[in-house]
Amino acid sequence: MDIISSELNAPSVFREKAVLSPDYLPKRLLHREDKIRELTTAFKEVINDPGNTSVRAVIWGRTGTGKTATVKLFGRSFKEVVNKKGIKVEYVHINCHRQRTLYLLTLEVANTLKLPIPVRGLSSQEVFKVIHDYLDRRNIYVIVALDEFDYFVNTSPQEDVYFLVRLYDELSAAVKRISYIFIARDLSYINSLDKSVKDHILRNIIEFKPYSSSELYDILRDRVTEAFQENAVMDETIRYIADVNGFDKGGSGNARLSIETLELAGEIADRERSPIVTVEHAKLANSKLNQEASIILDEIGDLELHNLLLIKAVMNLTKRYKDDEFPMGRVEEEYQQVCRDLGEEPRRHTQVYEYVRRLRLMGVLNTRQSGKGLRGRTTLISLAFPVTQDLEDYVNKQIRVRINTREE
Ligand SMILES: Nc1ncnc2c1ncn2[C@@H]1O[C@H](COP(=O)(O)OP(=O)(O)OP(=O)(O)O)[C@@H](O)[C@H]1O
Ligand SMILES: [Mg+2]
């Protein structure tokens, strides 16, 4: 009893920990002001000439660069400002990884607009028509943000991607009510689409660069004020985390990872009953978050070139699709592509399979048999660890070293 109550009453460096959770949307996003400005310029037409065009913007950049947060903040604020001008605008944020098909995605749009859709019998196209008629009747314009859009492009049938993107070629509507913001980690998937579709997407291209250490410092500082007790976090602590992660200092420029490190540092301080979060706490947090990766680095360091190329292939897929398991065939295709890019002759199937077995034994890859699908059983492959920028850089470096030092 005593233990429990003393633990519950223990002082904490945190004031409002929820502010550090990944879902928390801060009131302002430092160093993204110009991006909000660019988005506003792109969407000005919705106010100046409502219904005349369906505006399109693409946001792209690495993980943790604030794409989701910035677009959400823009959407909410834009809606508010424009509604005051007497134009009805709604904002819908769709995560394509969660809403995996055109149909689910369409239902989610309807859902957010609080528009009931008959449960069965309608195709996605028909649901879109229902949504559009509803918007017409109420004279509403909608900005639909399609987050993790690369995922949708990769996993959906081409005609679904085309329908969604070329909406107004397919849907006859006098007034164009739906505009899009596409969010992606990189543009290669969009670039691989047909020109006629691509042209509908690549209109206003906005790049999110990884954060520098001084930018991360400001972002962390801002979060600290809200999340922690006054003076609980030392300035050096913030500076340390910003330096480790700053893109200009060799880090990944990832704000999510930086905030996670800050939170873990706070938890460590609490555990030690320390009223302040020191650099030591931050170092511990940082190494904890990188620990898994460093164990893996040791193992990977000794591998032969084609094992590394195979790891790189699985890493590429994992990053691109934000999924974690891939059929053997898909992995092999990517492996062959990786080889081609580096001018390497790919190994044959049986040999690649042997690599997979070996990497599984080493604990680098996980494999399992899929259930019986259309094409029978297949081996599904996943990485046994999360892909970090450091890890990727390391693997690339090892590959380069092996190619350069090879005896011809
Ligand atoms: N400029 C900023 N100011 C304050 N917080 C930020 C800023 N940029 C990012 N963040 C925070 O960092 C975290 C990651 O941001 P976000 O989710 O928007 O990244 P993302 O680019 O969408 O990443 P992913 O590609 O992985 O989806 C969030 O918690 C977000 O609130
Ligand atoms: Mg995101």
TrEMBL record:
One of its GO terms (biological process) is DNA replication. The lineage of its organism: Archaea, Thermoproteota, Thermoprotei, Sulfolobales, Sulfolobaceae. ATP binds at T65, G66, K67, T68, A69, Y211, R223. Residues 311-395 form the Cdc6 C-terminal domain. It comes from the Archaea. Involved in regulation of DNA replication. This is ORC1-type DNA replication protein. It comes from Candidatus Aramenus sulfurataquae. One of its GO terms (molecular function) is ATP binding.
